[in-house]
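Posting this for the archive.
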Amino acid sequence: MTPSCQKFFDILELVNQLALHLTREEVSILSRTNRDLHARLSPFLFKSLNYFDPIEIFTSTSGTQAFGRNIRHVKKLTFRSDELAYYYNCVQSFEDLKEQSGDAPGPRPSWYPARDPITREFVALPPMTRLMHLDFQFARYLQIKLPSASEPQLALAQNCWLIAHNPHLTTLRIHSLPITASCNCQLLFRTIADLKGIKCLDVSIACHLNRVFQVGLDLFNCLSPSIQSFNFKHMELGDTREEQDNSETRDGGSSSELVVVPRRQGLLTELLELSFWRTADETTTADILSVFAQCPNIQKLVIRDINGHYNVQDIGEFIGRQCPHINSLSYYSAESEELDSLPYWIMQELPPQQIINFIDKGEFSDLSFPTANLTIVKHSTTLRTLSFSRDNGGFRRISVGAILDECMNLTELHMGGYGGGVYIDLADAQGSPWCCTKLRSLTISVSGCMMPPVDAGSLPYYDRPAPIALTQAETDLLSQLEKLYIQIGRLTELWDLSITMVKFDGQGQVDETSWSWNNVLDVPHSFPAMLSLGDPWQGRPGYLGHLAGLRKLENFKGSVRADTKENKKTMEWKECVWINEHWPQLCLVYFFRFDEDVSAPFTWLQEQRKHGRDELMLSWETNE
């Protein structure tokens, strides 16, 4: 009697269904069981190829030949420019063999690039024609040394050649592509225009800033009506050789046939996601509005680096009226203060209670615009994610009363940045309980939390003999801090908490070093009395108990060092026992900088977690 296992693997349909549920490594192992399974399962190893996968198709002749046998099965491909150059030459070898056998290929378009000078033998490979997903990365550092791989114009021509052979592509991503000549743009536009079923297009280029907007606009205008997501952006890319034009060197001929580029007629009614790209000084308001006039149904909008002098209110209100379905809005700006109110004008014009996600990384964003808080209140019940940060230097206090009092359904709230940022004052934490009790991730920076300086000859409160007598200023500050800790302790859904203490220098300005990661590591900071249970007998305050509700907490970062002068005295065994009991999910908290700094109570705490879901990381720099 035939074993049931053998019967199972004799049925091709069952084997195919099984392969769909296995990882590539599992399919590879199973395919080596016997020859029949190897023949049946090999195609599954080649359906999706990228340079992170263990299959390296061009590192050996046998690997390249296996790729050739299964090339018709490839549906998803990630290629660097050097891999594409190698593959292009392999296909040219295949075309040579066809010509030698009497099967002459059709006429080649004049823009087809010439092959590389033959300095090696290429395995003949047929062209891929069934790709659905292509991800192309222009490689500055080549693993396969071929002249065309390092020449941007030839790399683009090869990329367009591959796209032209796969007209059924639904997803296309082109990363870090230097634009070196006008014919490059025309070739790209014409190739993209021929993709009638494209749904997702993601293109990043490197070229002169004053060309970025027009390149993006021309590309946008040739998109197929099937497009659902369009992301176009400019990238800084070292030596891009933007002024070079080598169109007559090795590109195979003239670019005259690339003059006419099809231009779409009608609206992009299927477009749901749009990333609006950088403008230039010569970009007009009409240019900007012409884009949004064509996409009435977008739901997710990202705006990057709009530069120039425009009537921001008019643009924002036009976008809000023309694109009334936006529910996710992100705004990034590094240069123009006068345009930072744009996202608020957009939201003000949208129907109420519609925005779900809002990210504001305006260079000067501080919610001081007259309509800012009113706009947030207008979408207070639908907002799930709010993020305010400034990553390009500078500091600004923001008022978040409307957020804390009105946005009841928030799950993520981030207020911070690297090298600069936004912060709130301790006074903003006072008053009624925060209504955003569904928060799962909170990043917040708070000023006004430093203990008052002690008088000459006096000791910090934690070094004073018992019973500890607090000054009135210390009592007032600790009372306000306790209210902040109580507010945070009510956020029982939190799993990620980053809370940073903002310091001021002698001139009353934000101490920039308090925001520097290096300084935070070198000079420990911690919120007063937050990580201690206190000692009633000594009269020493401690408010760790107010955080008992954070039982889902996994990540705890910011000004929470256990090796400050205060916490070395106030965090002891009982605090570690408390943390082990009340924060059972905690797996990362930077109490220390180095492993060797971890004290005995915290070593015990780590030991308690060794057999749990995740080990507990207590230091920034480990010895492993």
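The longest helix spans residues 81-100. Residues 239-259 have pLDDT under 50 and may be disordered.
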